[in-house]
Amino acid sequence: MRVEIPPLPLDAIRQMFLQIADRFESDPNLNSVLLLADGMPLAAELLGHAVNDSDSVDGLLTRLMGRTGERCNRNGPAEQVRVPASASEG
């Protein structure tokens, strides 16, 4: 028997993420990180802990996506995600 769990809405993912990393609530790039969770609760929790380790949303985006800004999701092919200029400098 296979059970599929539908993805959570972005607002629910935001709440889970901010329970762990609330200091990033007003970060302008927060939605970029939340979209990486792809509606999966565990991913939101892991991203919350990862951003705390990075000390910035830009730092986390750089680590996860590198300089290309590409990511994969459960729907298959990679898609482009905006990476702020400050994240790609260095």
* Rg, Å, rounded: 13 Å
Strand content: 5-15%
Calculate the mean pLDDT score and round it.
80
Arrangement of strands in the largest sheet: 1-2
Structural class: mainly alpha
Please tell me what the overall shape is.
globular
* Number of distinct helices: 5
Q: Which residues form runs of ≥5 with pLDDT under 50?
A: 72-78
Tally of individual domains: 1
Helix share, percent: 40-55%
Describe the biggest sheet?
2 strands, antiparallel
Succession of helices and strands? HHHHEEH
Number of strands: 2
- Head-to-tail CA distance between termini: 49 Å
Chart the SSEs and their pairings.
Blueprint: H1 10-20, H2 30-36, H3 41-54, H4 57-65, E1 70-73, E2 76-80, H5 85-88
Antiparallel strand pairs: 1-2
Helix pairs in contact: 1-3
Highlighted features:
two-stranded antiparallel sheet; 5 helices; mainly alpha; 90 residues
How would you portray this structure in words?
It is a single chain. 50% of the residues lie in helices and 10% in strands. It has a two-stranded antiparallel ribbon with strand order 1-2. Strand 1 and strand 2 form a beta hairpin. Helix 1 packs across helix 3. The protein is mainly alpha-helical and 90 residues long. The longest helix is centred in the middle third of the chain and has 14 residues. 23% of the residues are buried.
In short, what is this structure?
By secondary structure, the protein is mostly helical.
